[in-house]
Write a structure and sequence with these properties.
single chain, about 110 residues, alpha+beta, 2 domains, two-stranded antiparallel ribbon, 4 helices, 4 strands, about 10% strand
């Protein structure tokens, strides 16, 4: 005798039986076997590894040459910004000595 599985509806067990949702275990196994294999991914990029060499940098940088930065008090020029990005110690616009813990890879 085959085992039976009752698929429950949201409204309860009785509603599931009324809707004819009583299935044989063999039917469920057959439907599961027809499903696509799990080793195939939907997207070709889904199982690829993350970058192993991320880079640290800044793609948008304001210096004293920029009007909005200058009016906000930035007095460092492009040379100081480049030295700061390379990891050198510079004096900020507020007079504080600053240095990155790690140089940037790009600026």
């Amino acid at each position: 005798m085959a085992a039976a599985v009752l698929v429950l509806a949201a409204s309860g067990m009785a509603a599931g039986a009324e809707q004819g949702l009583l299935h044989r275990a063999d039917d469920i196994k057959a439907a599961t076997a027809a499903m696509p294999a799990k080793d195939k991914s939907y997207s070709p990029y889904a199982n690829r590894a993350y970058p192993t060499r991320p880079y640290f940098g800044d793609t948008h940088h304001h210096t004293a040459n920029s009007g909005d930065a200058f009016f906000n008090g930035d007095r460092l020029g492009p040379e100081e910004a480049y030295r700061f990005a390379r990891g050198e110690q510079v004096t900020s616009s507020t007079g504080i000595e600053v240095k990155l813990s790690r140089p940037m890879d790009f600026l």
